[in-house]
Design brief:
It is globular and about 70 Å long. The longest helix is centred in the middle third of the chain and has 17 residues. It starts with 5 loop residues before the first helix and ends in an 11-residue tail after the last helix. The chain is built from 9 helices and 5 strands, in the order ααβββαβαβααααα. The chain is an alpha/beta fold. Strands 3-2-1-4-5 form a 5-stranded mixed sheet, sandwiched between helices. The chain folds into 2 domains: 97 residues, no CATH class; 151 residues, 2-Layer Sandwich (Nucleotidyltransferase, domain 5), CATH 3.30.420.
């Protein structure tokens, strides 16, 4: 193999728009009505009904009493250390949360159990908070959301339960707020009682609501795929790319960055099918591109599209 300098390798990778990225897992939805359900959710996000309210609802937890890794301001060379072992004598609690898209505020309850009874009581509290108009609740397919008594009460009280496609929790806007709650209220803590931990969560929610603003034009979309793959059969794509077939915006509208990452093989396949920049000297990458890149000593040696 020909040796090249670190600087030259950096230029090659930059020219090819290749970067070192994290790899995570992705589970495809097996919902046969995935497209219709996703379009329904995105429509509520982008154009909420004037005579109703869109609320994203989900559960967060379990809330154990345990040391949680995180970051904190500390004097130099004096990091904080948390205990490594803990017990579960105090049990776990569960948070039920709702994100109001009209104001961006979060409403929550913390309970010892997570059953359909607790969920129905939470839904009733939302109905009491907003007594007029239809409530459109974005929820996942957890069994307690589909309990007959929950569905019957919701139908009788002008509440629409909008179910996400299976394995598509990333479509629920409240998930991003839960990530912030975990980062700011729980990470780096070691609460010794549930009241103490619940108070920390409540303090974060109060701060969030004081700085909240309406949620409009959701950034949630399916990932971008190469034009040549947009009409490809679903079994040719092993990442979340088939979601973009339904959520692809018009040509004059740029698509935001997807909430999830494509798998390594999907990114490689995207390159193999010609996902390249017309301004870059690296305009095509095939399965043998790695050797071509390492052996290239000048831009004229880069592989090109035919």
């Amino acid at each position: 193999m020909t040796s090249i300098s670190r600087g030259h390798l950096t230029r090659i990778l930059k020219a090819g728009k290749v970067s070192w990225q994290s790899t995570t897992t992705w589970k495809n939805s097996n919902d046969t009505d995935f497209v219709a359900k996703m379009q329904r959710v995105l429509a509520l996000y982008d154009t909420p009904p004037k005579d109703g309210r869109v609320i994203c609802v989900d559960e967060f937890g379990p809330l154990n009493l345990q040391p949680r890794k995180g970051k904190a301001w500390r004097p130099g060379k004096n990091p904080r250390r948390l205990r490594a072992t803990y017990n579960r004598y105090s049990g776990a609690m569960h948070l039920l949360g709702a994100l109001d898209l009209a104001t961006g505020k979060i409403y929550h309850r913390i309970r010892e159990r997570k059953r359909w009874r607790e969920f129905l009581a939470f839904v009733k509290s939302l109905r009491e908070r907003w007594p007029g108009g239809t409530l459109h609740l974005i929820v996942d397919n957890y069994s307690l959301h589909k309990h007959p008594q929950v569905k019957a009460w919701a139908a009788a009280n002008d509440i629409e339960l909008v179910f996400l496609p299976t394995y598509a929790s990333w479509l629920n806007w409240i998930e991003s707020e839960f990530a912030a709650l975990r980062y700011f209220a729980l990470n780096g803590t070691d609460h010794r009682s549930h009241p103490e931990q619940n108070a920390a969560i409540a303090a974060h929610v109060r701060w969030h609501n004081q700085h909240a603003h309406p949620k409009a034009s959701s950034p949630i979309r399916g990932p971008v795929i190469p034009p040549r793959l947009r009409d490809a059969p679903l079994d040719r794509l092993d990442g979340p790319s088939h979601h973009a077939v339904a959520s692809r915006p018009p040509a004059d509208r740029a698509m935001p960055r997807p909430p999830g990452r494509a798998s390594v093989s999907q990114r490689r396949r995207s390159l193999e099918y010609g996902l390249c920049s017309s301004t870059s000297p690296l305009t095509q990458v095939n399965s043998d591109a790695s050797d071509a890149l390492l052996n290239a000593h000048s831009p004229s040696d880069y592989p090109r599209c035919p």
